[in-house]
Amino acid sequence: MKTHLTFFIALILFFTSYSGICQNAYWGLKGGLNINKVGGIDLDNSMYAGFNLGIFGTFVINDRISFSHEISYSNRGFNSELLNGEAYSFRLKYIDIPWMLNYHFNPAIFAQIGVQPSVYAFFKPAQYDSIPYTKYNANPFDFSGFIGAGVILKNNLIFGARINQSISKTFNISEAGGKQLTMQFYIGYAINRKIRRRYNFGSSGSR
Prior knowledge:
- The chain is mainly beta.
- Helices cover 10% and strands 53% of the residues.
- Strands 1, 2, 3, 4, 5, 6, 7, 8, 9 and 10 form a ten-stranded antiparallel β-sheet that branches.
- Strand 6 (99-104) and strand 7 form a beta hairpin.
- The longest helix is centred in the first third of the chain and has 20 residues, at 2-21.
C-alpha cells in the first residue's frame, strides 16, 4: 500500500510540473467504467464490468488540436461458464498508458484517436491450471487502438467515452489467445485548465 501511494504521489508531481513548465498545458484526474469482452477464445463470454482510475495531462496546440496522455489503473476481464455449468469470472488488471490526439469542434465538444500500450499488473511464474485462461497465462503487455469523444464544460468537468480494440493477444496461447474489446466511460476534472477568452472556431471567431 505504501509503494502504491508513493507511486501515485510521484505521478501527481510529474503531471503538475509538466503543466507548470508548458504554458498551454493542464492536468487532471479521471475515472469511470469499463465494459469489456475478450473475443476469439474457446470460452463463450459475456461483458465484464470493471473500472478505470488515473491521471492525465493535455497540451493545447491551438483552438482545434490538443494532445493528451494518461497513466491509469484499469480493471477488465470476462464472464463465462465452464463445460460443467460452473460460472467463471476472470479479472485482468492493467496499467494503461494511452496517448491521443484530440480534435475540438468547439470549446466544449471534442473527438479523439489514439494508441494504448498496457502492462499487465500481475507478474508471477506460470503454473499449471486445467483452465488455460488464467492470470498465469495472460500476456504481460497489451497494445490497442481507440477512438472516442467527449465534452469539457466551463467548470472543467469532463465527460467522455471510448471504444478500444486490442491488436495483441490477451493470453499466451498459440491458437486462441483472444483480443479485448473495451467500451470506456469516464468523468474527469481538469485541475488547472484556464478558460480562454477568445476562440477562433468560426470564420470571424467568437467572443
